[in-house]
Amino acid sequence: MKRTDRACILVVDDDPAALETVANCLAAGGHTPFKVANSLQAIEVMRTRRPSIVLCDWLMPGMDGLELCRHIKSRTADPFIYFIMLTVQSGKEHLKEAFQAGADDFLCKPFHPDELLARINAGIRTADLYDELAEQNITAQRLNAELSQLNARLRQTVNTDEITGLFNRRYGMNMLKELWAMAHRYEQPLSAAMIDVDHFKLINDEFGHLKGDEVLQSLGRILAAGIRTSDVACRIGGEEFLILMPGVTSEQAYVCVERLRIKVESSPLLGGEPPRRVTVTAGIAHHAKAMTKPDDLLKAADDCLYAGKRAGRNRTAMGSPACDPEPVAAQTTQGEAQPDPTSHPDDLRKALTRF
Predict the structure, then answer these.
(1) Tally of domains within the chain
(2) 343 and 239 in a common domain
(3) Are 69 and 58 in contact (CB under 8 A)?
(4) What is the arithmetic mean of pLDDT over 166-190?
(5) Residue 258 annotated among the catalytic residues of the structure
(6) Which position among 97, 115, 239, 336 bears the catalytic label?
(7) Domain of residue 84, CATH code
(8) What range does the domain containing 264 cover?
(9) Among candidate residues 272, 242, 268, 279, the one with its CA nearest the CA of residue 164
(10) Where does residue 143 fall: left (phi above 0), alpha (psi -120 to 50 degrees), or beta otherwise?
């Protein structure tokens, strides 16, 4: 809680004459005393005011000075308050008891006014120093929070593909290493799917690169919405995407990726009437004991992808768990393999209409 009155000095004494003497001495020294007759009144005043110093008599009926000191010092959320104990008890055992209760200074009655003012001025300097440190701490906490947010945004920027909003190649390759190491060590399933947009160059040539970016953005949203939170989807370059699926067999991965392929094919990503289709080809590979490094899994998925391309595109091709070099291509939605129309540029234009 912020201090509301830095100049206020709270004086607590059940003896009216002693209370007035201390108050007059403080006023003569240019300070602002606030007088109360007991500890309960002091606590009530401190609910609305935050004095720099409390000057309190030890021996009072009810809650004495020691109890009031313990109460004040226990309120760690409040600003620091310098507590001076006033008492006729000057023995060493009393001095020890006062400091153990949390008192910052100890002044025996009767006292000289100059000594009281000197103790008060020292207390004000101490309270001001604590206030300054508290403000610096608040500023440091705010700066640390801002720095943490900036670092989080920086990590997101470093790991995120700016077009699709998916993770980028850098992050994907790092996650591939981590997930592959876990799968290899603990013999857990791990599947990887490489996905490539069919005839993407023709999309850029006919509709322009801005439309091509829109297609990639839409594809990114479809992929992000169609995978588990534990999966990792990233754009690894151009029109190529990678999905890492820990704890998933190749057969399970096939169901997920084929669903994504059908979703892409049925979405009017290019618009037009009738809608122009965009299709993707995917290749799925599964971690196998014969693999010795993460790139083996990536290459296996890539081999499956190109097998799917050779078989006619717009399909999901899957290799066996043993990572056979000749993956088995899944049938398309239409139930038949479609030829690769790459023999002539005009054929490519016509293929874009179909795909």
Answers:
(1) 2
(2) yes
(3) no
(4) 94
(5) no
(6) 239
(7) 3.40.50.2300
(8) 169-354
(9) 242
(10) alpha
